[in-house]
Design brief:
- It is a single chain.
- The protein is α/β, with parallel strands linked by helices.
- The protein folds into 3 domains: 1-30, no CATH class; 39-187, Rossmann fold; 209-439, NAD(P)-binding Rossmann-like Domain (Rossmann fold, 3-Layer(aba) Sandwich), CATH 3.40.50.
- Helices cover 38% and strands 18% of the residues.
- The chain is built from 14 helices and 13 strands.
- The strands form 2 sheets. Strands 9-8-7-10-11-12-13 form a 7-stranded parallel sheet, sandwiched between helices. A 6-stranded parallel sheet has the order 2-1-3-4-5-6, with helices on both faces.
- β4, α5 (126-146) and β5 form a beta-alpha-beta unit.
- α9 (267-278) runs parallel beside α10.
Length: 447
């Protein structure tokens, strides 16, 4: 859906009005369209040299991302990466200011800032725990300052997981993370086996089989296209009334289609039988299907409360358990649940939806610990205001508020959610599990 205000803000008259009235100024975001992951130079720095700093250098080199550790007073940078994992006192936090203040004005439009830290729970002292937790306030505040389509994110790296940061750095430094900002990502939360060896960077999911529910349109269609782009054999699932749309999409992508209602009693067994008979198993599962039945709780019908919860989290749990019980999710598998910022911040008139989406977070975080022994990851995405067909039904005032109430001053696109899922699915993301990442342009709602 076209954002007419964004277009207005970029014409000569609109620029003048926006600047002089202090109105939101939504930049045009860069999104990945092929070619190099980062078109520019990344400046790196560290409080002191640590295993994390060495891993950053190795990861950038492996991804062929141009980087330097020597700042220049005139050079422009597409990314700034700072290793803060060694900071172990409140006094040491000044190193953040010492690195960033001289170079922030040299950050290009749609630039990327990544701070790396150590898990506060692994800190050896209270002072170190304080310092590492303080990084969240620093990055979220800086994310609201940088503007111009740039983003700031924090990555906590568990001890021993340093070599697994590559796929996450690639995602956060590239245009694939256009609508991800102010987020905290934790690497190495679960005791997983060594990260899978990455294959062809252009087709990292080659040889993998992916299932996306609710795949016929909107977010699901974007997700299945992104997974196919990255080399996966895709299977879409949607309800029978949308079978024609689903089949047209999966036929275009050379994939398979499953037409059924995921809340049906026999749905888990039917899905398991499909993958057993056609592919011998499945590698990536994206539980995207969801509906809304909005009413304030005083007017809510029991069946509408129950249905929203069951589609978003009840059925995904049953389907996943069936696939796990039959051993059909292969080692190195990826399970992704779609939550929402409504499940984090709540939303007026959406007690059922907020309940369901918060339930996704609880389920995924618990599941990630259970499946780690099998080399399987489980993560969640919490989208914010995303420009889908559903947006057209929202009253204009609420629609505009949803678009502007984030650090990017605009809604995201379905591809933004899809790119985050592709990052989770990447073979190099084996140490990324138990995370909930918001794709919301750093919405002002929620944590």
């Amino acid at each position: 859906m076209t954002d007419r205000y964004q277009d207005l803000a970029h014409n000569p008259i609109g620029k003048f009005v926006v600047k002089n009235l202090g109105l939101p100024n939504p930049p045009y975001l860069e999104r990945y369209e092929g070619g190099p992951l980062v078109k520019g130079t990344v400046l790196t720095g560290a409080a002191t040299q640590t295993p994390v700093a060495k891993a950053v250098t190795a990861a950038l080199k492996a991804a062929r991302i141009g980087a330097t550790g020597v700042p220049s007073g005139t050079k422009k940078y597409k990314g700034l990466v700072f290793d803060a994992s060694s900071i172990d006192s409140s006094e040491g936090l000044v190193s953040l200011q010492e690195f960033f203040t001289p170079v922030l004005r040299q950050l290009e439009a749609c630039g990327r800032v990544v701070v790396l830290g150590a898990l506060p729970d692994e800190a050896v002292s209270e002072a170190a725990a304080l310092a590492q937790r303080a990084l969240e306030g620093f990055t979220r505040s800086l994310a609201k300052e940088v503007g111009n389509g740039s983003s700031v994110n924090l990555v906590y790296v568990a001890k021993g997981a340093e070599s697994s940061i590559g796929s996450t750095l690639e995602f956060l430094l590239s245009p694939k993370s256009a609508y991800v900002s102010g987020q905290v990502i934790r690497i190495g939360l679960t005791d997983l086996k060594d990260a899978d060896k990455a294959g062809d960077p252009a087709k990292p999911l080659a040889g993998k089989v992916a299932l996306v529910t609710g795949a016929s349109r909107g977010l699901g269609a974007a997700e299945i296209r992104a997974l196919h782009r990255d080399g996966a054999t895709v299977v879409g699932l949607d309800i029978p009334p949308l079978e024609a749309d689903l089949k047209a999409l999966t036929d275009e992508l050379g994939g398979g289609a499953i037409s059924l209602d995921i809340t049906a009693a026999d749905a888990p067994e039917e899905i398991a039988a499909y993958f057993k008979n056609n592919h011998g198993g499945v590698d990536i599962i994206v539980h995207n299907a969801g509906i809304t039945r909005d009413k304030r709780l005083r007017n809510m019908k029991p069946e509408n409360f129950a249905l929203v919860v069951d589609i978003s989290v009840g059925a995904p749990q049953r389907i996943t358990d069936e696939l796990l019980d039959q051993g059909l999710i292969r080692e190195g598998g990826r399970i992704v649940g779609i939550s929402s910022i409504a499940g984090i911040a709540g939303n007026n008139g959406q007690t059922n939806y907020g309940t369901a989406k918060a339930g996704v977070i609880g389920w995924i975080q618990s599941l990630s610990k259970r499946v780690a022994k099998d080399g399987i990851t489980a993560n969640a995405i919490a989208p914010g205001f995303i420009e889908t067909e559903m947006v057209k039904t929202i009253p204009l005032g609420i629609r505009e508020a949803g678009r502007r109430m984030n650090s990017m001053s605009q809604g995201g696109l379905p591809i933004d959610v899809a790119e985050a899922i592709a990052w989770y699915a990447n073979p190099g993301s084996s140490a990324v599990s138990g995370n909930v990442v918001r794709v919301c342009g750093q919405s002002l709602l929620g944590a």
